[in-house]
Amino acid sequence: MTDTFLWGGAIAANQAEGAYLEDGKKLTVMDVVPQGVNRRKIKQGLIDYKTVYDENAYHYPSHNGIDFYHTYPEDIKLLAEMGITAFRTSISWTRIYPTGEEKEPNAAGLHYYKSLFELCKSYGMEPVVTISHFDVPLHLVETYGSWKNRKMIDFYLKYARTLFVTFKGLVKYWITFNEINVILHNSFSGAGLILCDEENPEQVKYQAAHHELVASAAATKMAHEIDRDNQIGCMLAAGDYYPFSCHPKDVWSALNKNRESYFFIDIQSRGAYPSYADRLFAEKGVQLVTEKDDFRMLANYPVDFIALSYYTSRCISYESTAEITEANIMTSVKNPHLESSDWGWQMDPLGLRTTLNTLYDRYQKPLFLVENGLGAKDVLKNGTVSDDYRIEYLRQHIQAMRESQRDGVKMIGYLAWGCIDLVAASTGEMSKRYGFVYVDRDDEGHGTNARLKKKSFNWYKKVIASNGHCLD
Asked: Which of UniProt's keywords are assigned here (predicted)?
């Protein structure tokens, strides 16, 4: 590890902040996604949230999160005690522009984030900021259809400019869109798309993606003009697909599934649509509506680095009889060579090394692992959690990352996901815990909200102090 390698943790505004209507903030997409049986299909855009929205009948976990909006001074102090040198969070778009259409930003929202970032800097932490992390203003969804409407580019750029100007000198590392490939899988939470009445959902998803890609390139241009020290990254939900067998059809299926995700990064990193896009669009009946300057913008303003989340690898078989397992957002055939977490996610540290090598070989740009962690059912006993299983998961993945660096992969840093327990994005549960710090809240949002150090807290503190050399 180099001396400049960043060690830290990551959260997201919609999973942690709470205070969902406080200080001028208005609703975002995740504020109308409930816990429970409808959650997945609403996130996918297959159920219109309005048909089931009922605050009396359902629990909406983003409304309170872990109350980070009010507790951040104590939380950042705890993280500083652990020695982290980078803290990733997202900005809630509606804290800055409550509907997305305002001409002037909300001063209270800017003040909140400025105070947060200044506090991070005072502790020697580099803020890593995601501009749009599953947080589209609901007003823009209802009024314009969200990212399927080209007007979203201008709304996004107005928002991004405000951030770049206000936080100049405080924030260096920016991510334009969290896990941009999620638009294909969780289209409502990822991009505010409601697909249940669409004749060709693929047309809507890829058209919306095109608008996001143009917006990302334009934001990269803008960020560099405002502060040449800014570093702008794209981000994908990563994890290579393995062929389930050596059958050529399985190998071909894996290649195509990997292309499905890398499609976005090909464009953001290389500056052009990949050659396989023509056939992809023809087979899906997609006809992009573009403007002449779009491709010039993409070509001239690629990202500086590639951020990724990694929790698990995936597996695919051409045979429909193969057993399916949970694999974060994407479906996967169960890999018989891997063990699974409490929530069915298969654990594969060597898959991280494979994925990092694939990405670096493909793009030759610095990688930033901004999410990695284990969601587990922690048991609080005598004021702590003995989470040896989490320590072992992280140890193996950090070791795999170190091996990838020996392979020649250039990396900016490693950020553990959910460094403080937060609401799980997949299920909306608090019981699916990732953190080094236990938060006393249950799945219904009840509890003292107290913060308690887990065993992994001191372990990660030693990892950071040794710059990743001490993993025992």
From this structure: Glycosidase, Hydrolase
**Which pLDDT does position 328 carry in this prediction?**
57
How far is the C-alpha of 144 from the C-alpha of 105, rounded, in Å? 20
Q: pLDDT per residue over 241-266, tens digit each?
A: 999 999 999 999 999 999 999 999 99
Q: Looking up tokens 């509506």, which residue turns up?
A: 289
Q: What is the four-CA torsion angle of 30, 171, 436, 25, rounded to 10 degrees?
A: -30
In this prediction the pTM is: 0.97
User: Which residue, 245, 403, 389, 239, is CA-closest to 314?
Assistant: 239
| Percent of the chain surpassing pLDDT 90 | 93
Q: Which residues are catalytic?
A: 371
Q: Is the pLDDT of residue 429 over 60?
A: yes
The residue assigned the tokens 């890593």 is 128
Q: Which residue has the tokens 């981000």?
A: 235
Listed in order, strand segments (DSSP E) in 171-254 are: 173-177, 231-238, 241-243
Could you tell me how many residues make up the chain? 472
Q: Tokens standing for 77?
A: 């102090």
Closest C-alpha among 301, 433, 306 to residue 379: 433
Helix (H) or strand (E) holding 244: none
Model pLDDT, residue 331: 79
Domains defined along the chain, listed by start: 6-465 (3.20.20.80)
Task: Quote the CA–CA distance of 431 and 377 in Å, as a whole number.
Answer: 6
* Range 31-53 average pLDDT: 95
- Helix (H) or strand (E) segment spanning residue 53: none
